[in-house]
Sequence to fold (679 residues):
Amino acid sequence: MLLQIKNLSARIGQKEILKGFNLDINAGEIHAIMGPNGTGKSTLASVLAGKPEYEVTSGEVWFQGKNLLEMSPDERAREGVFLAFQYPVEIPGVSTTNFMKAAVNAKRKHQGLTPMDAKDFLKMMTDKRAIVELSKEFTSRSLNQGFSGGEKKRNEIFQMAMLEPTLAVLDETDSGLDIDALRIVAEGVNKLRTADNAFLVITHYQRLLNYIVPDHVHVMYGGRIVKSGGKDLALQLEEKGYDWIKEEFADLVG
Amino acid sequence: MSDIQQQFEAIEHTPFRQVREDAFRAFEKLGIPSSRHEEWKYTNIKAKLSKEFTFTPQESEVNKSVKAYISSLPAYAFRMVFLNGVFQSSMSIIPDLKGLTISSLKEAFSAHQELIEKHYGKLIDNNEEHFAALNTAFVNDGAFIHVSRNVNIEEPIFLHYFFTAGEAEAFTQTRNLVIAEEGASIQLAEDFRNASNIGVQYNHVSEVYVGKNAQVNVAKLQTETKNVIGIHTMEAQVDTDARFYSTTITFEANVIRNNATARLVGRNAHADLSGLYFAKDTAHIDTHILIDHVAPDCTSHQLYKGVLNDQATGIFNGKIFVKPDAQKTNAFQSSKALLLSPEASVNSKPQLEIFADDVKCSHGAAIGQLSAVDMFYMLSRGIPEEQAKQLLTYAFAHEVVEKIQSKPLRQHLCDKLKEALNLQL
Fold:
């Protein structure tokens, strides 16, 4: 098993958001997590990535047999966890190229490899840019600065392509995307899919799942998974909305 | 004062005896300011400087460090080298170019008497500015640069000021006079360097005239100023439709005081002043800016940033004066400091005095740590914490370096910044 989340609870401040969350992901799988706003989907992504504001109060997360919760955020990333941000950060003064050089070489060092030579690195950049149709100009510019919403999300997928994670968590990557950007992002994910990696796609809407076809769909409500199924579950949610979930599991919130 | 009087009597006064005399009398009244003086409140310069001063230029050999540095320089078109305030013509490169005069100030005193009489010492106020008065009284030498009407000089002119410690009391007085006539443009890079391992003290004054529709860019480099006590005063007068840009970069120092004044005296003039300091150990970097909007329709922009480590201290005092006639002024000031150590400190004081009613003035000051959101983004890509801090600090500082006009110089400073941050990419 690639990722095993057991009875995970977490809070921000005094507010308990994850309440006994369980999920198993195998290599080669794509899992989608759907659910109404405020049910803890993004918190799950943040906790997996190690965002410091969140405090894990109980439970375990095992990633490739290692205790993920004991690792610092940067260690998790070097071990192969990647979070595509819902709101990618703009950092004027650091180019995407330099950002990626630092990240790729940190990972290589962790794997006992020497830093990539400049020529190989540039070739890799060119190849990976092609996956999300980003022009060269974007990677020489300051990280996400002045990028449109779609460009920022494509940049996230580009970074994912560069870092070749074993587990990629996409936190509402589809939010704010027009149909073309959505297609580019989804195709990027499909191209990166292998038998050895896995994706956890967090989304509010079903439309992304027209492009990225999940093996499993989970509905999250009140800080845990309340329903799991195949891709048909997503279609059912699209059709019926979330109200029936809210009614059925009303006792989980409040 | 008797000693300083004797020294004053002993120096060679020709041909500007009267100017020196007046300045000396003014300085005698002012003295070296103590921290009781409002403008020197946070910088006790009296306690930092030596008790006695020697103003005679130190006879010094060009040492290995100076030679090595000069030979490492790319083939710039223009270069003047000064060692302890003495012009080194053999190391300088001054091509003969129509419409451009580059000479030592001493030479200019006799060769360009008319221009000197009209401009020299006219932008500073000896009765108010202690160190400008002292400089005028005891000036060793410096650069005289004149660009004729409508002459545009593309290549930057480098002015290298080297200091090698001689006597502990040596207090070198260097001075520039820069005149850009109507429609002219010019770029200067003033580079101040301690070429010894021990302490040096100097006092530098620049007067800059930016004529109608002229443009002057000044990059002031204080990147090799370890153990330096340096006082800088720059006064620029910016005429109608003219543009003045100044960027000061300070990397290490004992004490650096940067005074800069831009006086916008003609309609539609623009001044853009910026600075970056990177202070560590017990470095003390004090910046005092005055933008004086005298004429209407002028714009000014200030961007000052500091990065402080260890027990370093930074001071930013930024004044914007808008005089009664300066309607439609648009003035902006931003000062930001990044504190990387709990023991570092910053004092920031914006000061706006507005006497016109139809103006736009804004300022912002921020003192803080690196953004946690940015930091997490870096970490989430596997970049180790230490390197993430270096990258974000680089990003913070970089904005100011970007303002340097000359591309090779900008690149050089980016490299220096990476080196200072120990950032490897």
